[in-house]
UniProtKB/TrEMBL annotation:
Listed Pfam families: PaaA_PaaC
GO MF entries: phenylacetyl-CoA 1,2-epoxidase activity
GO cellular component: cytosol
Protein name in UniProt: Ring-1,2-phenylacetyl-CoA epoxidase subunit PaaA
UniProt signal peptide: none
Chain positions covered by the region annotation Disordered: 1-21
Biological processes annotated in GO: phenylacetate catabolic process
Recorded superkingdom: Bacteria
Length: 329
């Protein structure tokens, strides 16, 4: 069973308060309240460290696994221009994982341990990358709307409290905004193309909408970690706030293209300004994040193979003999 044993289990209150020196905890919380950034060498509660490792590590895993559904379309992209752009995007996503693993390492967990926990199924990664990209249109919907969702979440959290994570997120968001433009252009191309192209992108939207709604995490009332993460300014917006912001920014753009979304109840309440929608199937979400989605086994198998095939490269690079190799001119 993937996902470890801590799914939807609230952090124990005693972990939060009683194990920590009250004076140090108060000073730490005062720093957070003043909007100061925490650096790796600063004192921090054990739970803050643990939560950050969990969240940044899952985020890093999501980036390398996230390269896979779109990656399968590089060789089948419909033009040379699209192939070049998609290849650069996928490469960027893997680079984001590098930045994030580096940020998580500052908290004391080694990269080897994180990758081990990914490939053994102990650690989670985003639900969304456990679905197949059947057609080229699926890859364009990922590039536009999954990147859009990632930007909503990550531009908020880039203003958070843990400095190394914020620095990584700032760089990541700059690149993600190029991905979003590329994805939007590719979706517009299909939506304004032949009837078959329109049909293809509509079908992809229908497939991806429920996992995109899941992407922002469970509703706030079901979320386990939001309270403490918001309190310590790791999460700068709740799951529901991010979901609402995403719908506010992108549902009108989807409708403008004459495309529809597979939810008859989706509407913005004119009085409250809040988007109303049918709750996506949260039981499916739990199954997918715990290893039982359409592609979980395939995704982890690819990562396991990459680890095995790359072992000799890591061994060679770490070999003492490497120090005698002259640098390339
Ligand atoms: N998928 O208490 P909460 C990208 C888990 S990057 C899987 O609400 P939290 C770029 C959660 O871990 C995408 N699991 O959790 C790209 C917890 O389980 P645990 C990733 C999920 O942490 C684009 C349990 O449910 N982004 O897309 C998900 O407060 C295109 C309870 O949930 C980030 O990682 C989910 N969607 O809020 C790449 C951003 N949601 O650990 C390629 C940073 C929840 O107790 C192509 N992370 N769970 O076993 C976050 O902002 C937060 O961690 C949330 C979840 C919002 C994801």
């Amino acid at each position: 069973m993937y996902g470890g044993g801590n799914t939807f289990e609230a952090p124990k209150p005693e972990e939060l308060e009683t194990n920590e020196d009250p004076q140090l905890l108060a000073a730490f919380e005062a720093r957070i309240a003043r909007g100061e950034k925490i650096e790796p060498h600063d004192w921090m509660p054990a739970l803050y460290r643990k939560q950050l490792i969990r969240m940044i590590e899952q985020h890093a895993h999501s980036e390398i696994i996230g390269a896979l559904p779109e990656g399968t379309w590089i060789t089948r992209a419909p033009s040379f221009k699209r192939k070049m752009a998609l290849m650069a995007k996928v490469q960027d996503e893997v680079g984001h994982a590098q930045l994030l693993y580096g940020a998580a390492e500052t908290l004391g967990k080694s990269r080897e341990a994180m990758l081990h926990d990914l490939i053994t199924g102990k650690s989670k990664y985003s639900n969304i990358f456990n679905y197949p990209a059947f057609t080229w249109a699926d890859s364009t919907v990922i590039s536009w709307l999954v990147d859009a969702g990632a930007i909503v979440n990550q531009t908020a959290n880039a203003k958070g409290s843990y400095a190394p994570y914020c620095r990584a997120l700032e760089r990541i968001c700059a690149e993600e905004s190029f991905h979003l433009k590329y994805g939007h252009d590719a979706v517009v191309h299909l939506a304004t193309g032949t009837p078959l192209q329109r049909q293809m992108v509509q079908e992809a939207l229908n497939r991806w909408w429920p996992p995109i709604m899941h992407f922002f995490g469970p509703p706030d009332k079901m979320s386990v970690h939001t309270e403490v993460l918001v309190r310590w300014k790791v999460k700068m917006a709740t799951n529901d706030e991010c979901r609402q912001q995403f719908m506010d920014m992108y549902v009108p753009k989807i409708w403008e293209l004459g495309l529809t979304l597979p939810d008859p109840n989706l509407r913005k309440n004119a009085e409250t300004g809040v988007w109303e929608y049918t709750e996506p199937d949260w039981e499916e979400f739990k199954r997918v994040i715990n290893g039982d989605g359409p592609c979980n086994k395939e995704r982890l198998a690819v990562r396991r193979t990459a680890e095995e095939r790359g072992a000799w490269v890591r061994k060679a690079l770490l070999s003492p003999k490497m120090q005698y190799v002259a640098p390339l001119a």
